Amino acid sequence: MVAIIVLTLCEHFMIIFSTNLGDFTVELEMERAPVSSKNFLKYCQEGFYEGTIFHRVIKGFMVQGGGLTAKMKEKPTRDPIANEANKGLKNEIGTLAMARTDAPHSATGQFFINVANNDFLDHTGTTNAGWGYAVFAKVTAGMDVIQQMERVKTTTVAGHEDVPREPIIVEKVTIVDESSVA
User: Fold this and answer.
1) Which of 1-5, 59-63, 168-172 has the lowest mean pLDDT?
2) Is residue 121 within 8 Å of 158, Cβ to Cβ?
3) Are 86 and 97 within 8 A, CB to CB?
4) How many CA atoms lie within 13 A of 121 on its CB side?
5) pLDDT tens digits, 47-100
């Protein structure tokens, strides 16, 4: 039993996103959303998010990124993951959730940050409409940067709505394993 606790403590990651608007830090929910957290962490480790943009910004709702370049080209991803929205985590202000298509188990690399309490995105059942969006992390520092993102002016680009007029670019992603700091 002690070994299990030690293993859990070793899986505490903080991820710092440096953008052209400033930095924000997220903490993964490795215990409650392990599939989504490990998927996101792997994309971070591979440098996938560097050079991507926050391509969808809706004031009072969310900011979405993690898959498109500044030229609105979609980056190739790994296979979709299982939806973990049924794990009890809620789409509350400052949480990160996996973006997906209408298919419940279609999330790959894109994610969004809730800028409001979006309980209508939470899991309500195992039907297509009820699956919800899997929360896997929360912003622990830099929420002011997210709020700044939320306020940018948007337009439509190449069929994509709510695109920031000036690109919000992820310049660098830094992973901190807090167990190695302690």
Assistant:
1) 1-5
2) no
3) no
4) 25
5) 999 999 999 999 999 999 999 999 999 999 999 999 999 999 999 999 999 999
169 neighbors 9 (Cβ within 8 angstroms): no
**pLDDT band at residue 6 under the 50/70/90 scheme:** very low
Q: How far apart are CA 60 and CA 103, in angstroms?
A: 25
Q: How far is CA 48 from CA 77, 110, 137, in A?
A: 9, 11, 18
Q: What is the mean pLDDT of residues 150-162?
A: 96
What pLDDT is attached to residue 12? 77
What are the structure tokens assigned to 148, written together? Answer: 């700044």
Residue 136 phi/psi, 5-degree rounding, is: -140, -5
CA distance 13 to 29: 9
110's tokens = 């894109």
Residues in the chain: 182
CA dist 50 and 23 (Å) reads 13
Q: How far is CA 86 from CA 91, 112, 132, in A?
A: 12, 18, 8
The two three-digit tokens of residue 23, written as one number? 């930095």
| Cα–Cα distance for residue pair 26/182, rounded to 1 Å | 18
Which ranges in the chain belong to alpha helices (H)? 2-10, 34-45, 143-150, 178-181
Amino acid at 167: P
